[in-house]
Amino acid sequence: MTTRHEPWPATVVTAVAGVLGDTAQGLTGREIGQLLAVVKVPDVDGGNKRDRLAGALLAQQARQQASNCVIAFIKEAMAPVRYVQQPHTFSRRQDDLNEILVHVGLRVNDEGSMARGPAAATLSEAARHASSLRAELRRRSTHPEVLRYCTLEILAKNSFHASLEAVKSVADRLRTLTGQGLDGARLVDTVLMPGQGTARVAINANATGPELDEQKGLANLVKGLFSMYRNPAAHEPRLHRTVTDEELLELLTTLSMVHRRLDGAHVTP
What is the C-alpha separation between 181 and 44, in angstroms, rounded? Predict the structure, then answer.
């Protein structure tokens, strides 16, 4: 027999629809229609994706006097098989949904299923702090690669640990782009720093003096970030290195800029 789950507050359902029906990063209108059909929720007319999805889920919840339809839709929308080619999208939606689902004591786990989690009233101060940082990162339109490395769980530990993980995102991406197994300054010198010719990961044509200066500038910036955060952080006790929230946010904003330059880079095999 199917367990009946109590209806969720309309604000929670609407917030869920806001994540999954987001104009830029949510499901497409066609995907919403298909998923509603899969979970047997009647579609409704709506001005935008969020309103349409919220209207359909709230109407079905009211008819059934249960939140089962909302839970079913989330599970279908977050099925990992849908994100094989877009793991970053899964991580972003998972984090955004979990910030909302905490208000009903649930969370989306890594399998895309619903699991019990702490209710908002019982959240630790660390968890509240992490949620606040994530909200600020979203407000700053932080690059998805940075957000993928700064999950709520990592942010809840401490800003020092988050800075270490975030800087790793650039090294990991350079290795993924080039297939290199190097690390630190050697990695940057090999793939990002222009030598006798064009850099392997080139953010411009590398044809003129100003273009080469820009390429070298990005390479030196990345090496500086590795030296300032990654290398010391890997060897020094946390007691000797304090990273404030303000410093962490500034670091993540800088790393976001680096990733955006890599988005448009030309990679030479």
Answer: 51
